Amino acid sequence: MNITEIAIKRPSLIIVLFSVFTLLGIIGYKNLSYELLPDFNQPVVVIKTMYPGAEPQEVETSVSRKIEDALSNLEGVDYLETKSMPNASVIIANLKYGTNVDKAMQDAQRYIDNIKKDLPADIQSPVMSKVSPNDLPIISISATSKLSDTEFFQKMKDDFLPQIQQLKGVAEITLLGGEEREFQVKVNQDKLVYYKISLSQVVDAINRTGLDLPAGKVQTQKENNSVRITGKFTAIEDIMNVQVAMPMPNSPVYVKDIANVIDGVKEVASVSRYNGVNGIGLMLKKQGDANAVDVSKLVQEKLKVIEEQNKDAGVKFTIADDSTDKTIAAVNSVVFDLFLAVILVSIVMLLFLRSYRNSLIVLVSIPTSLVTAFAVMWLLGYTLNLMTLLAMSLIIGILVDDAIVVLENIQRHLDKGKEKRNAAMDGRMENRFSTLSITLVDVVVFLPILFCKFWCRHAQTIFCYHYHPLHSQVC
Question: Per the confidence metrics, is the pTM higher than 0.85?
C-alpha cells in the first residue's frame, strides 16, 4: 500500500498528520532566526601583526617572511597571500576546502609561538581570526548631538555604549569618528638640553607617577584594612607638578618647567559622516546564534529610549544601514509569492476545470506543504536567509506545477464518470512519472551547484580583500 492509497482509504489519518505537521511548521517558523546569508565558515585564516614605526621593507623581511616560513608546514594550506604595509603585516592563509579551520588556527598559533624569539622584540603579538559572514556588522548607526565633540564622545563611550552592549544578542560595537579628549605634554627641547634631561626621563616620570598602587595593609586587633597609594591624575595641574629629575641638590625639575600641558584632542584616525554631517559611527555585530531581526528591533528601541532621556542635549541616532531590512524584505517577498501562487492556481482551476473543490484543495494543500518545511528547517538548525528563501521560492513553483498536473488528470477521470476514490487513485497513479519528471528537472538544473566552488571561492576573495589590515573587522 503506497502513500496515495493510504491518503484515499484513511483520510482522517492524513488530516491528523497534516494538522500536526502544520502546527510544528508554525512553531518552527516562529523560532527560526533571520540572517542575510547562511552561517558558513570559509577555510580562511587571517594573521595580523602590528609593527609600529616600521617601513614595508622592514615588515616584509623581519615579520612577513618569517611567519610565512612558519606557516608553510601548516596542514591544509592551499596558498598564502601576504600584504606588508607600514606598521602592519597581514597574511591570508587560504585553506583547502574541508579543512577544520579551528584546528588549523591552533596549529598556526603553535607554529608562530615557536618563532616568536626570531621576531623583532617591539612587535605586537600576532592576532589570528577567521573570515566569516558573522564578522559583518548588521547595523550601521550615525550619532549626533549638540554637545561638544569631546564631551559627546566621552558620554557615548561611558554611558550610551554600555546600555547598547548589554542588550541580548549584541556581540561587539565598533566606534568610528568622534574626538576623544587627551592631555598632551608638549616638551621644550631647549629646556631639556638646559637641564640635561632626556625625553625618556619625562615619559618615565609621568607613567610612574600616574598610578594607583597597593601599599599593603594595616592590621589591628579589631580591623584589617587595605592601603592604596592614589596617584592617578585628575587635573592638568597634577601632571604639571610631577617631578622629573633633580640635577642639583634642592633644585627639582618639574614637568611645568620643561613642557606645556594642554587639554587637547586625540589624533583623529577615522571620520564618520552621514549626509554631510559629522558624528560618531557605530558598527554593531551580533552574536553567532542570535536572531538578527530581534537584535535590530532591540537596538532601535534602546536608541529611542536614549534619545528621549537626552533630549536636552540633542542626541539623535540615525540608522545608516540595516542588513535585516533586506532579510525582512526577502521573507515578505516569499510570503507574497506564496499567496499569489495559491490564488492564481485556484483561479486557474476554477476557470479551466470549473471546480470549486479543486480550488479549495489548492488553497489548503500548497500552504500546508510549505509550512511543514519550516518545521524541518527548525529541526535541522537552518535559518531564514537568502539561500533558504530562494529554495522556498523554487518549492512554490514545483508545488504549483505538480498540483495542476495531478488535479487536472483527476478531474479528467471524474468527467468520465468514475467514482471519486477510483478517479483520485487512477489520476494520481497515471501521472506519478510525469510529476516526478517535473521535480527532477529542477534537481538536474540545481544539483551541479552543490559541486561548484566558484561561488565560495568568489565570496572568499571578497571577504579577504575587504579585510581592513589595521582593524579587527571585515569592512
Answer: no
